[in-house]
Prior knowledge:
There is one protein chain. With about 775 residues, this protein is an alpha+beta fold. It has 17 helices and 14 strands. A hairpin with a 2-residue loop joins strand 1 (about 1-10) and strand 2 (about 15-20).
Amino acid sequence: MIRRIELINWKTHKDTVIEFQKGVNVLIGIMGAGKSSVMDAISFALFGTFPALAHKRVSLGNIIMNRPTEETHAEVRLDFDSDGSEYRVIRKVSAKQGSDARIEKDGSYLQTQAERVTETIEEILKLDYDTFSRAVYSEQNGLEYFLDLSKGERKRSIDEMLGLDHFSAAEENATSYINSLRSMIEGEENTLAQIDVKKFREQMDALSKEKEDVARRMEKLSEKAAVLTKSFKEAKAKSEALKSAMEKKRALMDKRITISARNATLAGEIKKIDALGIVKGDVEKRLKDATDRAKALSNELEKLRKDESEAVRSLSSIEANMKALKKREMEKRAIEESIKGRDSTKLKEELDKRNEELEKLRNDIAEKRTGIADGKKWIAELSKHLSACPLCERELSQEMRQSLLKGKEDAVKALEKELENSLSKSKELDEKVRTTKASIDKLALDNARLKDFEAVGSDMARLSKELDDAEVKRKEAEKRYKAKSDESENAKELLNKAKLDAEKIARREDYSREVRINESTLNEIEKSLSGMSVDEKEIYAVQDALTKISSELSEASSKLESDSAYTKKIEAQMSDKKKQMDDFGRIESRIRERRAVIANMNKFKAALIDTEAMLRSKLIGSVNSLMQSVWSELYPYGDYTAIRLTAKKDDYLLESRVVLDNDERWLGIDSVASGGERSLSCLAMRIAMSMVIVPNLRWIILDEPTHNVDSNGIDRLINMLSNNLPKVVDQVFIITHDESMKQISNARVYMLDRDKDVHGNTVASVM
C-alpha cells in the first residue's frame, strides 16, 4: 500500500505532502493544477521513469520547477508497505548532476544506486515498469484513444497492453533470420557454381611432382656440401694452428724488445739517484728525528689553539653582556624622561575634584529625570478632560485645564533639554576621570620599573674593566699561537725533505730488483725463440687451399638455399590450393547446416503463431468475462446489455450487444456509441485488462474517468468505486476535475489548486 508521497520542486509542486489511504483516493483540481504530476511522481519514485519521460516527450530537466522561480533540483519521497515491512524510496534530479536514488527498509538503507534501487523495488512488488504502465497507470485518455487508430496501430496497441507484442516481435525476428539465412545460402551456392574443382586437383598434382624433382636435386647438393664442409674444417684448423704459432713468436720478440728498453731506462734512473750521494742510514735517522719533532710541535700547537679559542669566547660573552646592559641603560633613560614633569599628588587631587563634580552632576540628572516623570504624569492626568484638579480637587474650567496642561508641557520640555546638556557634560567629565586614572596608574608603574635599573651604572663600569682584561688575554694567546705555528711549519719542511730522500732510496732498491727480474725473463725468452721453427710460406699455401674450398662450398650452399626457397614457394601454393579446397567443403557443410536451421526456425515460427493465438484467445476470454461484470455495474441504461473485445486477424474490435426486433446483434462501439458510452466502455475494458494482466492487482490509477460520461453514468461509476472496485484492488487513485467524485464513499479527497495567472505553486488540501 502506498502511504505517503512528498514532492519538492517537482513541476508545479514546491513542497507538497499527500497522505494516501487503503481504498479510494481522489485528486480533484482544475486543468494544470498538478494532479497528473502526482501520479507521474509515484511512477518515477518506484521505477525511475513515467510514460511521458519513457517516450521522451519530456526530459529529466523538465521535471525541475522553473516557474515562478527556477530551481536547481527536484526530489520525490514515497513511503509504501509490502509484506509487513515499511519502505521509503527517495529519488533526486539535479540540473547538473543527473539523478540519484536510495531505498530504506524499516529505517535502514537497502540500496543507494539508481538502477539497483529499481531492481530492488521490482523484487519487492513483483511488478516491473512495463507491467505497471500497462496494468496500473495509463496516462489521461491512454486507453480510449485506440478507438480512433487505424487497424494495424490498434492491434499493435492492444497487443502491447496484453503483453502479446513480444510474440509478434519474436515472429518478425524469426522471419528476418530465415530470410537472412536464405540469402547466405544463395550467395554461397553461386560461389560454388563458379568453381572448377577438376582444374584445382590437376594444379595440385603438378605442384607435387615439381616439389619431388627439387627434393632430389637438393639431396645431391647436400652430399657435395658435406664433403666440402669436412675439407674446409680440416684446412681451417691447420691454418689457425700455424697462425697461432706465428703470433706467439712475434709476441715473444715484441716482449724482448720492450723488456730490454725498460732495463736501459731503469739503469739510467739508478745512476741519477747514486749521483745525489744519499746515504740510507743518514736518511733514516733524519726522518725519525723530523717525525718526532713535528708530532711534538703539533700537540703544543693544538693546546695553544684551544687557549686562543677560549679567550675569544670569553671576550664575545662579555661583549654580549655589555650590549644588553647598554639596552637597559637606554630603557632607564626613557622611563626617567617619561616621569619628568609628572606629580602624583597633583594628579590625585585633580581626580578627587573631578569625581566630586561628577557625583553632583549625577544627582542633578536624577532630579531632572524625576521632575520629567512627574510632569509627564500630570500631563497624562490633565489630558483626560477632567473637570476637577487631580491634586486639590478644585473645579477646573476648560481654559484653566488647558493653561495648566500648557505650563506642564513647557516645563517638561525645558527639563528634557537641561537633562540632555547634563548628560553630555557627564559623558565628558567621565572621560576626563578615566584619563586621569590612567595617568596615575602609568606614573606608579614607571616608578616601580625604575627601581629595577638602579644597578645599571655600577654593572657598566665592572663589565668595561672585564672587557679590557679579556682583550689583553686574547691578544697574548694569539701571539703565542702564531709563534708556535711558524716553528711547526719549519719542522714540517724538514720532515718533507727527509721523506723525499727516503722515497728516492726506496725507488733505487725497487729499480735494482726489477732489473734483475727482467734479465731472468730475457734469458727465458731467448730459449723459447730458439726452439720455434714457423714457415710463413706454408701458412700462405694452406690459406690458398682454404679459399678455394670456401668458394666451392658457398656455391653449393647458395644453390641449396635457392632450391629451399623454391620448395617453400611450391608448398605455399599447395597450401593455398588445399585451403581453397577445404573452404569449398566448409561452404557445402554450411549450406546443409543453414538449411536445417531454416527448417527448425519455420517450426519455431509456427509454434510462436499457435502459442500467440491460444494465449490471445485465453486473455481476451478473461478480459471479456471480467469486463461484463464491470459493465453491468458501470452502465446505467438497458440499450447495451453487454460489451466484448473481439480479436480479428489484423485488428481488435470493441463491440456492444443490442437487441433489435427480438434479434440480438453485436455492433462496434466506435460506430454506434456516444462519447460518454465510448468512455464507459473503455473504462470497463481498462479495469478488466488490469485485473487480467496483474491477477493480484494492488493499485489502479484512473485519469479523468468521467470524460464525456453523463450524470447517470457518473452515479454508477461512483457506486462502483464506493462498493465494488475496492474489494478487488487495494488502492484506487482517481485523477479528475469533476467534483462529483467527492461523493465516493469512504474516499480520501485532496483538492489541488494553483494560481495559473502568476505561475503559482500547487497547493494540496485534504477534505
